[in-house]
Structure formats: C-alpha cells, structure tokens
Amino acid sequence: MAENNIDVKKMPFERAIEELESIVKRLEEGKVPLEESVAIYERGEALKTRCEELLRQAEARVEKITLNTSGKPTGSEPLDVD
Length: 82
Fold this sequence. Notes:
With 82 residues, this protein is α+β, with helices and mostly antiparallel strands. The chain has helices spanning 13-29, 34-61; strands at residues 63-67, 73-78.
C-alpha cells in the first residue's frame, strides 16, 4: 500500500486518488484485520474529501468559451458551476 504518513491536505489529486484506489482494493479483498480496516477506511474518507476539494478548485478555474452569432470564439467568461 502507499505510504500513509503523507499529509492528505498537501497531496496532489493524482497521488490522493492513487492511494484511495489502493485502500479500496485492500478493503474489497477482505484480508485486512478489523482495526487496520477501520484506520485505512478513515484515511480513505480523508483522501476522498481531498479529491473532491481539488476537483471543486479545478472547476472554479475552468472557463467556457463564448461564441458570437457566427460561431467564432469572442473570449471567455467564468464557468457557472451551479
């Protein structure tokens, strides 16, 4: 399994999702002792929250292209995330 001593709050998205996938796989295999299962489940929840936070931040930076009546790009404006 990936190192779990790395602070989740400082992880990049790719690293967090990779570790989260590793945790899910271990839990699905069912070969982890109960106490360890609880601990890695809690870390998995923290990783999930981190990934969701990073995705929200990325969405906030996405811009949509505005087009004029003939379909030509005229600029951009912030994406409405609602």
